[in-house]
């Protein structure tokens, strides 16, 4: 117990004094997670909108599959991306393996179902009655879509924040395709795993506290978005 207390004390000291190694890892983690979230948002929010506003055979099955993929294991995604960017893979010539770009690619794949599925849910929940009302008032399809998107913006932003939260805390993809290289691909989650294995308790706790803080910020932001959306209804 005394040892654990001392470790927490040292960890807090590292954070307060701005330990260079700790904060460089935290900054790298934020950059990678932010890049993957931005890319996934640009790709999969439009896809979610397309699925919602389109009628096609097998739509329910497609949406169900997307929602099932919310909890896909990170190591499975890491394995798929590893096979794609390894030397013998189809994208091996690009030299992405064990680089931040490989982690970004893996996290895009990981959070794609979350952003797509939650975007569909946001539009479906918001669009109940709104689409029929807009259409009955003579609004064209384009106008109706814009009205639904405007009404669902807070809920859609929540889907993006959820995707970021998943990306910033994952470990399987970062280890498998990033290699946990010091000063290059080491993130908060992989550094914690390595630090615990090496017995660097204080260092791991410092990183864990930062990661926990990031998770709390995302959670608070999601709650604010949800309350903001409910307050408008």
Protein architecture, described:
This protein is mainly α. The chain has a single domain (2-232), classed as Orthogonal Bundle (MetI-like fold), CATH 1.10.3720.10. Helix content is 79%, strand content 0%. The chain contains eleven helices and no strands. The chain has helices at residues 2-16, 20-53, 59-68, 74-85, 100-127, 130-136, 141-151, 153-169, 172-178, 188-198, 201-232. Helix 5 (100-127) runs antiparallel to helix 8 (153-169). The longest helix is centred in the N-terminal third of the chain and has 34 residues, at 20-53. It is globular and about 70 Å long.
**Individual helix count:** 11
Multimer state = single chain
Number of strands: 0
Radius of gyration: 21 Å
Question: What is the count of structural domains?
Answer: 1
Shape: globular
Mean pLDDT: 89
What is the element layout, followed by pairings?
Elements: H1 2-16, H2 20-53, H3 59-68, H4 74-85, H5 100-127, H6 130-136, H7 141-151, H8 153-169, H9 172-178, H10 188-198, H11 201-232
Helix pairs in contact: 1-11, 2-5, 2-8, 3-5, 4-5, 4-9, 5-8, 5-9, 6-7, 8-11, 10-11
Compose a concise summary of this entry.
The protein is mainly alpha-helical and 233 residues long. Helix content is 79%, strand content 0%.
Keyphrases for this structure?
single chain, 233 residues, mainly alpha, MetI-like fold, 0% strand
